[in-house]
Amino acid sequence: MIKMFYLVYGLTSGGIERISVAIYKYLDHSKINTQMVTKYADKEFFDSELELYGGHRVPILEKKPNNKIVLKFFYLFNLYKLLKNKYDIAYFCLSKPRDVFKYPIICKFLGIKTIAIHSHNSMEDDNVKLKKILNKLGRRVIGKIAQIKIACSEEAAMWMFPEKHCKLKEYLLMKNGIEIEEYKFNVQTREKLRKQYEVESDFIIGHVGRFSKQKNHKFLIDIFEKIYETKRNSKLFLLGIGELEEEVQDYIKKKNLDSSVVLVGERNNVCEFMQMFDVFLFPSLYEGLPVVGVEAQAAGLRCFFSDTITKDVNITGNIFYMNLSESPKKWADFVIEKGKDYERKDYSELITEKGFDIQDSVKKLERKILLTKKENHQ
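^ that's the sequence the OP posted. Answer follows.
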């Protein structure tokens, strides 16, 4: 049996965390014994779901010390103690190439033979020169130490791995799959939730995403403001939490949109909200391959994405792309035009055919892990 150390920073309600829990759920634990490791012990959104599948988190630190030097010392010390359990594989979900210098390279030095790097992003919005240099160096290091390379899209691979590895397709393309049946359009669910929020006859724009710079919430609010000026029965539902939540709330108040924007918070029934929405709006600065885009399409929604997001996510043809340099008014007019009077179809078969079923995605990953282990012992 293979023993795998799987590091995910936390178990909040983000896309990376969702995929990580799904990987745990569908891996064959009689073949791959997976230990979910997080930075801290705080109880978070996906803890209960992980426990439902027979897992539990192992924190590197019980709580975060205030002193940075103390933090680094105990982090490395506890990481070393954990790795004495003699894992065969260390698996890391990374957003930036330079993150390899934090944990993967330490695990390699501490004796883990097989390093797996899973790329979840396609760029970042930071132009600091030092960070660019570190990202370039990080790609080289990843090329040398990562025996297993995984990416959610070609763009995510190009961002994380050396160019020659990408050209030779020396990585596993693991699409961000979903539980497709949960998201199939359901009229009864739609009506129930719209009645609950007293928005039966309103035009509902939905967004699911962490309140962070990447998700571009202020521009999203600007777009909604213009939609609301034209369609006074419009409502914007925002699902998620994050470090910029308070700042976004203040921006909503400043725009006098309090009564038309609903902040829902973290929810474990995103699939039901997808039924409730009329359109899905997602003007992110960058993404890898957003799993919420797959979920929205599975619910039959028309989606409006920034053109920085990979076209690989446009499975159904229901994603419309716009440039972020376009005005909020132009975005709003386009959403109103394309978002009216369309049929919510069942795309579950198509989404499965295109490789976005989460069970199929995890089985591909499992085969890759088992094959790599076999090759290492030849």
